[in-house]
Amino acid sequence: MKIGLMADTHDNLEATERAVTLFNEQQVGHVLHAGDLVSPFTASKFLDLEPRFHFVWGNNEGDRLHALKKLEEVAGDSIDEFLALELDGLKIALLHGTNEKVVDALAESKKFDVVVRGHTHEPEIREDPLVINPGTASGYLADRKTVAVLDTEKKDAEILSL
After folding, report:
1. CATH code for the domain of 129
2. Burial of 143 (0-12, 13-18, 19+ CB in 10 A)
3. How far apart are the first and last CA of the chain?
4. In sequence order, what are the residues at sequence separation of 6 or more whose Cβ sits closer than 8 angstroms to the Cβ of residue 92?
5. Which end of the chain, N or C, is less packed with Cβ atoms under 10 Å?
């Protein structure tokens, strides 16, 4: 199975739409968003997403009450500060990752096969265990707009430009 990974959309509607289109074209089974959606209106862009959507709060979320109502339309109950998911046999930690010590502790704990994080806007893939930062879908504070796709069978990921 392929899993779409994204973070830090920061209200960039055009980039969010491109990510949704890319994930639908790639026929991913799930999309994990590692936070910083920012405004509630951005959540509606995920309504066209075909795979299941999972979301964790970032440090720049605005109106969480209204964002939650919008996100529930696409993510149901898969919204939290931190999510521990098991998808296609892989144990996955999903968090925004503002604290590097927490990210490292999750990786070192060996309780997860994959740790997915955002926050830094820098795409990164580390091994053993797999720690993936898809970068920033918005492109803000970075030189490009990026997402990632995780292949659960191969247990590897690829950073893709939007």
Report:
1. 3.60.21.10
2. exposed
3. 21
4. 3, 32, 83, 84, 85, 86, 112, 113, 114, 115, 116
5. N
Domain count, the chain: 1
Reported as a single tens digit per residue, the pLDDT across 87-137 is 999 999 999 999 999 999 999 999 999 999 999 999 999 998 999 999 999
SS3 sequence, the chain?
Answer: CEEEEECCCCCCHHHHHHHHHHHHHCCCCEEEECCCCCCHHHHHHHHHCCCEEEEECCCCCCCHHHHHHHHHHHHCCCEECEEEEEECCEEEEEECCCCHHHHHHHHHHCCCCEEECCCCCCCEEECCCEEEECCCCCCCCCCCCEEEEEECCCCEEEEEEC
Question: Domain range spanning residue 48?
Answer: 2-161
Tell whether the torsion through CA atoms of 125, 126, 127 and 133 is positive or negative. negative
Per residue in 60-96, pLDDT (tens digit) is 998 999 999 999 999 988 999 999 999 999 999 999 9
Cβ within 8 Å of residue 97, ≥6 positions away: 34, 103, 117, 118, 119, 120, 133
Asked whether 45 and 20 are in contact (CB, 8 A), the reply is yes
